[in-house]
Hints:
This protein is an alpha+beta fold. It folds into two domains: 39 residues, no CATH class; 132 residues, Nucleoside Triphosphate Pyrophosphohydrolase. The protein has four helices and nine strands, in the order αββββββαβββαα. Strands 3, 4, 5, 6, 7, 8 and 9 form a seven-stranded mixed sheet that branches. Strands 1-2 form a two-stranded antiparallel sheet. A hairpin with a 2-residue loop joins strand 7 and strand 8. The longest helix has 13 residues.
Amino acid sequence: MLPAELFRFCPRCGAARPPAEAGRAPFRCPGCDLTLFFNPAVAAGAWVFDGSGRVLLVRRAHDPQKGKLGLPGGFLDAGEGAVEGLRREVREEVGLEVERVAFLASVPNRYEYRGVTYPVVDLIFTAEAVAPETARAADEVAGIEWHPPADVDPADLAFPSMRETVGLLARASN
Length: 174
């Protein structure tokens, strides 16, 4: 279910949404004229390289895609820039600081959480780990793995945005 489909009543005045408008975005209240937009959430992830040219992947501890490999990263907080949020997420997930952060691609994605499918724009970066030997799996990560980019099987990756950008790594590392 998409977020727009959840709004049957206005959160400001309680007016019922006309049936003809059900599930449409934006939500426009017929009673008080409140308009709510359902824009995509923004997430940032990075192909983090060590000094040997390997990339860091995290084994997902939770759904969606529990057990699959992913990039360290996550959703940006309100008021947070993409690189700032990426650095925070990498610290939280694997305890690393990164440098030489470079934008690689933006890819639309969908993220299902508790029965709601959120539209997401994934901002994918490349980065270098400052001290890769200190990487560790935090609570939300089941494990970490370092792989040569050529050995990463796209079928093992959790999300389409990751599968789409793994092919860009050869160009990015040259």
